Amino acid sequence: MSLTFCNVHFTQQPQRVVYVSGSLMKNLKLSGKKSVHLKFGGERVPAVIKPINKPGKHLYLASGIRREMRIPKAGSVFLRSLQEGEVQIGPLIGVLSDGPTSSASNPFGSRTGFIRQLLRYGSKRSYIFAFTPRDINWDDESVNGFFLNEAGNFVRKRVPLPDVVYNRLPSRRAEVTSSITQLRERFIRRRIPFFNWSFFNKSDVYRMLEKDQIVNRYVPESVMNPSPEQIRDLLDRHSLIYYKPNNGSLGNGIYRLSKQSKSGYYARYRKQGRNVLLRFSSFPSLMRTLQSRHGRALQGYVAQQGIRLIEIDSCPIDFRFHMHKNGRNQWVVVGIGAKKAGKGSVTTHLKNGGSLLTPEQALNRAFGSRAEEVLRNAKSVAITLAEAIEIHHQHLIGEIGFDIGIDKEEKIWMFEANAKPGRSIFKHPSLRAEGRASVEHILEHCLYLSKFRRREA
């Protein structure tokens, strides 16, 4: 297989003809050949080759070829020579998402800005589009995708099924429906790589990692669907636990439960946008309150050992590590945000009053001259955790967001892993370059999975 980067042009010729410059003929090993099979996404079309005397690497597609293959635009893309006399144009990258709106300028709701950024960057070296589950026509294996035009506006174009799919479906509820399960399986049956299969379930992640002797020391003790007796036992042994929904996100529904020998039990949580702190004289009274809010069974929750994290101004600090697979299929740390909890808040989430710092700002305050070494160790642990999850997870993963804590003894703790991490840390002025690097890594991994890898990779 050889891979080359070239300029694709369109001509008005109606025949099934491709015009190929001399140096491109040589690169693709087409010299002396009269015909070629062109592949684009799921389409494959035979064409007659006409060499042209033009410097550089150029491919001219007659209008008949362009229409039949549904190639959306001219521009600079990769060509990949496959078996004898077959050349693939691409890659054709699909970003799967959804939105509550039919707006032409904001089709993916709050994710539109990120998707626009992906398409703007990716269109410099690929055919990249966004689509929703409703845009797929499985009968003719095509997608009515959202592309960006030169003015930066979304335009709809019908293209074949893509070479790779990056999944950013936003709804946990939708992902467990039979229609979305069938959609994913259809891509896999067609051998189309589909990465970031679904949101992680907290209990599944804890269960995977607690059996892994290399990484289980980084995960606080966690009990799924705990009984009142198990909650009491955790409080007796740790004095502080977090009680959180198994499929929750953004800090919703989390309780911080603590036991103090002289004053009783405390529950801290957020209600209607305000932080609430309740004191209970006995454990049964604490449980009655939890059961009245969530039912006596207390199903769908995880109780987790609380960690006494490093603090700034008496407010706990944790870290969001944004991990990506790169163009060589290796895990790397692309961005780190330090999140400082708001006064009285259960979590460090920004919408709950938290604030964002760089990791250097936070660790210098906590560890002084040792900050650099602590950060280096945390990065190494994050990569080890990502590798462990990938080993135990049965589907392709290309991106993980870790919520990581560091205690005063410098020990690293992993609280949560997110398969579709939010991007709020990249709003910090000092992390905007990392935000751009995140987009670049997504696209590099798409090139890897679609086998349009850079030659040097």
Q: SS-based structural class?
A: alpha+beta
DSSP strand (E) fraction? 25-35%
Number of DSSP helices?
11
User: Which overall shape is indicated by the principal axes computed on the Cα atoms?
Assistant: elongated
Number of strands: 26
Helix residue percentage: 25-40%
User: What does the main sheet amount to?
Assistant: 7 strands, mixed, barrel
Fold topology:
Elements: E1 2-10, E2 17-21, H1 22-27, E3 35-40, E4 43-52, E5 58-61, H2 63-69, E6 75-81, E7 86-90, E8 92-96, H3 112-122, E9 127-131, E10 136-137, E11 142-148, E12 154-160, E13 164-167, H4 172-175, H5 178-189, E14 194-195, H6 202-210, E15 222-224, H7 228-238, E16 240-245, E17 255-260, E18 264-271, E19 274-280, H8 283-294, E20 301-305, E21 311-312, E22 315-325, E23 331-340, E24 355-357, H9 359-367, H10 371-392, E25 399-406, E26 412-418, H11 432-449
Parallel strand pairs: 1-5, 2-4, 3-7, 8-9, 8-13, 13-14
Antiparallel strand pairs: 1-6, 2-5, 3-4, 6-7, 10-11, 11-12, 15-20, 16-17, 16-20, 17-18, 18-19, 21-22, 22-23, 22-25, 23-24, 25-26
Pfam family, one: ATPgrasp_YheCD
Protein name: Endospore coat-associated protein YheD
InterPro entries: YheC/D
Explain what you see:
This is Endospore coat-associated protein YheD. It comes from Paenibacillus apis. The chain has eleven helices and 26 strands. It has helices at residues 22-27, 63-69, 112-122, 172-175, 178-189, 202-210, 228-238, 283-294, 359-367, 371-392, 432-449; strands at 2-10, 17-21, 35-40, 43-52, 58-61, 75-81, 86-90, 92-96, 127-131, 136-137, 142-148, 154-160, 164-167, 194-195, 222-224, 240-245, 255-260, 264-271, 274-280, 301-305, 311-312, 315-325, 331-340, 355-357, 399-406, 412-418. It folds into four domains: 2-90, Beta Barrel (Barwin-like endoglucanases); 93-195, Rossmann fold, CATH 3.40.50; 221-305, Dna Ligase, domain 1 (2-Layer Sandwich), CATH 3.30.1490; 309-449, D-amino Acid Aminotransferase, Chain A, domain 1. Helices cover 26% and strands 34% of the residues. A seven-stranded mixed barrel has the order 1-5-2-4-3-7-6. A six-stranded antiparallel beta sheet has the order 15-20-16-17-18-19, sandwiched between helices. The protein starts with a strand and ends in an 8-residue tail after the last helix. The mean pLDDT is 89. The chain is an alpha+beta fold.
